[in-house]
Automatic annotation (TrEMBL):
This is Recombination activating protein 1. GO terms for biological process: adaptive immune response; B cell differentiation; chromatin organization; T cell differentiation in thymus; V(D)J recombination. The lineage of its organism: Eukaryota, Metazoa, Chordata, Craniata, Vertebrata. The gene is Rag1. Residues 70-105 form the V(D)J recombination-activating protein 1 ZnC2 domain. It comes from Hyperolius ocellatus (Golden-eyed reed frog). Residues 1-68 form the V(D)J recombination-activating protein 1 RNase H domain.
Length: 105
C-alpha cells in the first residue's frame, strides 16, 4: 500500500496516521499466545527504529524530534534555508530517489 500526502498539510497527515498510531499502541500492549510443542508461549510486539517509525515520530512529536535537519522528506531544504525563503518551496527529489532514501512497506 502506497500513500502520498503533503507533509505540510497537518490535517491530512493526522487523518492518515492517527488510526495507525492507535493500532500500533494497541499492539504494543497486547500479547500473542501460541502453543509450541505443547508449551504455551507468550509474545509481545516490539517496534524498532525504521523509516516508518520516523514518520510516526514526526507526526506525534514534530520534525525535530526525529532528528531531521530537513523541513520535509520531499525537498532538501534545511530549516534555516526554509526560514529565509518562505515563498518558494518545491519537490527537489524524484520518486526513485525517495524510494532509495526511505523504506517501502
Amino acid at each position: 500500500c502506497l500513500m502520498l500526502a503533503d507533509e505540510s498539510d497537518h490535517e491530512t497527515l493526522t487523518a492518515i496516521l492517527s488510526p495507525l498510531i492507535a493500532e500500533r499502541e494497541a499492539m504494543k500492549s497486547s500479547e500473542l499466545m501460541l502453543e509450541i510443542g505443547g508449551i504455551l508461549r507468550s509474545f509481545k510486539f516490539i517496534f524498532r527504529g525504521t523509516g516508518y517509525d520516523e514518520k510516526l515520530v514526526r507526526e506525534v512529536e514534530g520534525l525535530e524530534a526525529s532528528g531531521s535537519i530537513f523541513i520535509c522528506t520531499l525537498c532538501d531544504a534545511t530549516r534555516l534555508e526554509a526560514s529565509q525563503n518562505l515563498v518558494f518551496h518545491s519537490i527537489t527529489r524524484s520518486h526513485s530517489e525517495n524510494l532509495q532514501r526511505y523504506e517501502t512497506w
